[in-house]
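Exercise 7b. C-alpha coordinates:
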Protein backbone atom coordinates (compact mmCIF):
# COMPACT_ATOMS: atom_id res chain seq x y z
CA UNK A 1 0.00 0.00 0.00
CA UNK A 2 1.11 3.53 -0.76
CA UNK A 3 0.01 6.88 0.62
CA UNK A 4 -0.39 10.23 -1.10
CA UNK A 5 -1.56 13.68 -0.16
CA UNK A 6 -4.64 15.09 -1.81
CA UNK A 7 -5.94 18.62 -1.46
CA UNK A 8 -9.37 19.90 -2.40
CA UNK A 9 -8.28 23.45 -3.20
CA UNK A 10 -10.05 26.67 -2.17
CA UNK A 11 -11.87 27.02 -5.51
CA UNK A 12 -13.48 23.59 -5.21
CA UNK A 13 -14.37 24.21 -1.55
CA UNK A 14 -15.96 27.58 -2.41
CA UNK A 15 -17.90 25.94 -5.25
CA UNK A 16 -19.24 23.27 -2.82
CA UNK A 17 -17.57 20.37 -4.65
CA UNK A 18 -15.99 18.71 -1.59
CA UNK A 19 -18.70 16.07 -1.21
CA UNK A 20 -18.56 15.02 -4.84
CA UNK A 21 -14.75 14.88 -4.80
CA UNK A 22 -14.61 12.83 -1.58
CA UNK A 23 -17.29 10.52 -2.95
CA UNK A 24 -15.20 10.01 -6.10
CA UNK A 25 -12.12 9.29 -3.97
CA UNK A 26 -14.02 6.54 -2.18
CA UNK A 27 -15.53 5.13 -5.40
CA UNK A 28 -12.03 4.92 -6.90
CA UNK A 29 -11.03 2.58 -4.06
CA UNK A 30 -8.87 4.89 -1.97
CA UNK A 31 -8.91 4.55 1.80
CA UNK A 32 -9.03 7.95 3.51
CA UNK A 33 -6.58 7.68 6.41
CA UNK A 34 -6.59 11.38 7.31
CA UNK A 35 -8.76 14.36 6.48
CA UNK A 36 -9.03 17.91 7.78
CA UNK A 37 -10.22 21.36 6.84
CA UNK A 38 -7.46 23.98 6.81
CA UNK A 39 -7.25 27.68 6.11
CA UNK A 40 -3.63 28.25 5.16
CA UNK A 41 -1.92 31.52 5.93
CA UNK A 42 0.20 32.97 3.15
CA UNK A 43 3.30 31.87 5.08
CA UNK A 44 1.99 28.30 5.43
CA UNK A 45 1.18 28.15 1.71
CA UNK A 46 4.67 29.45 0.91
CA UNK A 47 6.16 26.76 3.15
CA UNK A 48 4.14 24.01 1.51
CA UNK A 49 5.01 25.16 -2.02
CA UNK A 50 8.63 26.15 -1.19
CA UNK A 51 9.90 23.84 -3.95
CA UNK A 52 8.30 26.26 -6.46
CA UNK A 53 9.67 29.45 -4.84
CA UNK A 54 11.74 30.41 -7.92
CA UNK A 55 8.96 29.78 -10.45
CA UNK A 56 6.92 32.64 -11.93
CA UNK A 57 3.61 31.24 -10.66
CA UNK A 58 4.72 31.00 -6.99
CA UNK A 59 3.14 34.25 -5.77
CA UNK A 60 -0.18 33.63 -7.51
CA UNK A 61 -0.24 30.02 -6.30
CA UNK A 62 0.41 30.86 -2.66
CA UNK A 63 -2.07 33.76 -2.75
CA UNK A 64 -4.71 31.40 -4.15
CA UNK A 65 -3.98 28.59 -1.69
CA UNK A 66 -4.31 31.03 1.21
CA UNK A 67 -7.49 32.63 -0.16
CA UNK A 68 -9.94 30.33 1.63
CA UNK A 69 -10.46 26.93 3.23
CA UNK A 70 -9.09 23.76 1.67
CA UNK A 71 -9.52 20.10 2.56
CA UNK A 72 -6.35 18.04 2.97
CA UNK A 73 -6.51 14.26 2.80
CA UNK A 74 -4.10 11.41 3.16
CA UNK A 75 -5.14 8.66 0.78
CA UNK A 76 -4.02 5.04 0.75
CA UNK A 77 -4.23 2.51 -2.09
CA UNK A 78 -2.09 0.30 -4.25
CA UNK A 79 0.03 2.69 -6.36
CA UNK A 80 -1.87 5.61 -4.74
CA UNK A 81 0.28 8.39 -6.22
CA UNK A 82 -0.13 7.37 -9.84
CA UNK A 83 -3.75 6.38 -9.33
CA UNK A 84 -4.65 9.73 -7.73
CA UNK A 85 -2.85 11.69 -10.44
CA UNK A 86 -4.88 9.81 -13.06
CA UNK A 87 -8.15 10.58 -11.25
CA UNK A 88 -7.15 14.27 -10.96
CA UNK A 89 -6.25 14.71 -14.62
CA UNK A 90 -3.81 17.10 -16.28
CA UNK A 91 -2.85 20.29 -14.40
CA UNK A 92 -4.45 22.37 -17.13
CA UNK A 93 -8.13 21.36 -17.29
CA UNK A 94 -8.15 22.13 -21.02
CA UNK A 95 -5.79 19.16 -21.44
CA UNK A 96 -7.47 16.92 -18.86
CA UNK A 97 -9.24 13.77 -19.97
CA UNK A 98 -13.02 13.55 -19.74
CA UNK A 99 -14.10 12.09 -16.43
CA UNK A 100 -11.18 13.49 -14.45
CA UNK A 101 -11.72 15.79 -11.50
CA UNK A 102 -9.94 18.70 -13.11
CA UNK A 103 -11.99 18.37 -16.29
CA UNK A 104 -15.14 18.36 -14.18
CA UNK A 105 -14.35 20.96 -11.50
CA UNK A 106 -11.39 23.15 -12.53
CA UNK A 107 -11.83 26.51 -14.22
CA UNK A 108 -8.25 27.08 -15.38
CA UNK A 109 -4.65 26.01 -14.82
CA UNK A 110 -4.38 28.14 -11.67
CA UNK A 111 -7.75 27.22 -10.16
CA UNK A 112 -7.61 23.52 -10.85
CA UNK A 113 -9.64 22.12 -7.93
CA UNK A 114 -7.26 19.47 -6.57
CA UNK A 115 -3.63 18.73 -5.73
CA UNK A 116 -1.74 15.48 -5.49
CA UNK A 117 1.78 14.42 -4.61
CA UNK A 118 3.99 13.56 -7.58
CA UNK A 119 6.42 11.04 -6.05
CA UNK A 120 6.86 8.92 -2.91
CA UNK A 121 9.42 11.33 -1.45
CA UNK A 122 7.16 14.31 -2.09
CA UNK A 123 4.18 12.47 -0.62
CA UNK A 124 6.07 11.76 2.60
CA UNK A 125 7.01 15.42 3.02
CA UNK A 126 3.56 16.70 2.06
CA UNK A 127 1.69 14.30 4.33
CA UNK A 128 3.96 15.24 7.24
CA UNK A 129 3.32 18.94 6.53
CA UNK A 130 -0.37 18.51 7.36
CA UNK A 131 -0.67 15.42 9.57
CA UNK A 132 1.05 14.15 12.70
CA UNK A 133 1.52 10.40 12.69
CA UNK A 134 -1.17 9.92 15.35
CA UNK A 135 -3.71 11.72 13.14
CA UNK A 136 -3.53 9.02 10.46
CA UNK A 137 -5.54 5.83 10.90
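Sequence design result:
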Amino acid sequence: MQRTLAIVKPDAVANKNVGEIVSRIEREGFRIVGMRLVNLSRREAEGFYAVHRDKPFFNDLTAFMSSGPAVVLCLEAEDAISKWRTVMGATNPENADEGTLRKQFATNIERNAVHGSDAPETAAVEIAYFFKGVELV
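Instructor comment: The CA atoms of residues 89 and 96 lie 5 Å apart. The two ends are 14 Å apart (CA to CA).
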